[in-house]
Amino acid sequence: MIKVWDAPTRLFHWTMVPVFAGLWFTAEQGGDWMEWHLRLGMLMLVLVLFRVLWGLCGSQTARFSDFLAGPARIRAYLAGQLPVTAQPGHNPLGGWMVLALLLALLLQAGLGLFAADVNSYLYDGPLKALLGNDELAEQVTGWHKDWFDVLLLLAAVHVLAVVFYKVGRNTDLVRPMFSGVKALPDEAAPLRFASPWLALVLLLLVALLVFGGVPWLAASVAA
Questions:
Q1: I need a labelling partner for 197 at 20 to 30 A (CA). Which of 19, 79, 115, 204 fits?
Q2: In whole angstroms, how large is the CA radius of gyration of the chain?
Q3: C-alpha dist (Å) from residue 175 to 162, 166, 202, 223
């Protein structure tokens, strides 16, 4: 067994599950639940921005440069010609799914910052005032709601892919994301892991940027 996934990557992955579910639930409930929807939306933005940074300077298997493959590598993988030691983390298809999910989540969170609570206007997105008028904010809200359907589709594809690998290829993708380790041949090259302290610093900086910077910007506009 070889360590493949670091703790920051695994914690991001499993934290996103309840956050995403909570966003879905609070949006469906509406009313005063929208206050929690806003908080969870800000938290999701923190997590996604952290994961983007971790994809640039984190551990080997977490980096985009490690798992975003070109056409030749994808063809080799589909043809079964890519050894497992060449893809210890995300496989070439899974890597692009990760990027698609991150970009989709980032867009959803961004739209939410400018959206309006069209029923009461009590829980508008913190940057709604930047749009200048309620009509445009309501249009952005419509995009925010429609894009959630795209997110659900991507999430469904992700889950179905995990099931396919488990049933069709006898490959468990879930257990390694909990334990961090995966069964790989002995000749697999050692993987490089970044310091968890770096992850903590990045997370705190992003949290400060989102939970401090966004309200400051909103207050500046209101003034």
A1: 19
A2: 20
A3: 11, 11, 26, 51
Total-model pTM: 0.93
Phi and psi at residue 173, in whole multiples of 5°?
-95, -15
pLDDT, tens only, 37-74: 999 999 999 999 999 999 999 999 999 999 999 999 99
Buried b (16+ CB within 10 A) or exposed e, 161-191: ebeebeeeeeeebeebbeebebebeeebeeb
Cβ atoms 204, 8 nearer than 8 A: no
Tokens of 70: 């070109």
Read off the amino acid at residue 178.
F
Other CB atoms within 10 Å distance of the CB of residue 215: 13
Residue indicated by tokens 């997590």? 47
Tokens of 25: 């639930």
* Share of the chain residues as helix, strand and coil, in percent rounded to the nearest 5: 70, 0, 25
